[in-house]
Amino acid sequence: MQDSLFGDDGGDAARDAARRKPARRRGVDAAAHAPALQALRDALPASLRLGTSSWNYPGWIGSVWAGEYSPQKLSKQGLRAYAQHPLLRSVSLDRAFYRPLDAAQYAAYAAQVPDDFRFVVKAPGLIADALRRDEQGRGIALNPDFLDPLLASRIFAEPARDGLRDRLGALVFQISPVPDVLLRDRNALLCRLGTMLRALPALRDLAPDAIVAVEVRDPAWLGPDFAATLRAGGATYCLGLHAKMPTIEDQLPILRALWPGPLVCRWNLHRRHGAYGYEAAKQLYGDFNTLVDPDPETRTTLARVIAGTVAAGHAAYVTLGNKAEGSAPRSVVALAEMLVAR
């Protein structure tokens, strides 16, 4: 079913032919999609936007791209073709985590997508990481700018709002693992988070669909006081499906405490690989164009949460990574099929 929806019924032969086909020198060509994909999109709620974590993966031949392109070309020119996929109405702009973007850069992205496309944007690590890190990613010192209210507004919220405008879907503060010295003073940590959230600029005038969400990578955050801090700060919880966090079922109490409200979810890593399993998943999943590790249990629960959210009239932004099941675009299709089957 997955292959036929992508219009690549020839399987490996079709993909091999696509690789042999010379790519145009200008731009990136989108894959041809079977009518069934558009029918699937038409059956989904308009308030649900599915997408992937970034888009610069050459292996998505036949599912997203018509031919073979370098990661560099896809990063610079692939977004327009990505947005032609019937089900990909959102994307997680992960690049923003590594270096702050300015309003002009955000505006350039917005100009490449349709009116109903929405971006999920990660806050820079300069704000969302409690540690300063060396080139190998090792923490070397506490970060004095962690959750800084002024920086969060000046280098993240304001440029994203002003550049993306009505194509802004969610601002996500993905808080990296926090050292024990900060976790031990829970009240101070929650106070710091709440102060930052309350200081963020108004978004809705320029970005009517914008949501602020907080994703964490420490289970110690989860609790009623965390949910209360988010609510007081006008934010929601980003459901982070990652091996560093409890299962989706065990994270749902936070969403229930914030109900009613929108859903933001980022499904990044299959639990089989463990908390530090990104490299293992990368080795196993190859070109990211096959569902190697289907996870129907997580998918079923996520579909139930999505269905409840949109049925209550709220927006849902759900992005999936290649390392969740092996191929982010095909995970999107599988999730969409399950939602329609409900």
UniProtKB/TrEMBL annotation:
Residues 1-30 are annotated as: Disordered. InterPro entries: DUF72 (IPR002763), UPF0759_sf (IPR036520). It comes from the Bacteria. PANTHER family: DUF72 DOMAIN-CONTAINING PROTEIN (PTHR30348:SF4), UNCHARACTERIZED PROTEIN YECE (PTHR30348). This is DUF72 domain-containing protein. The lineage of its organism: Bacteria, Pseudomonadati, Pseudomonadota, Gammaproteobacteria, Nevskiales.
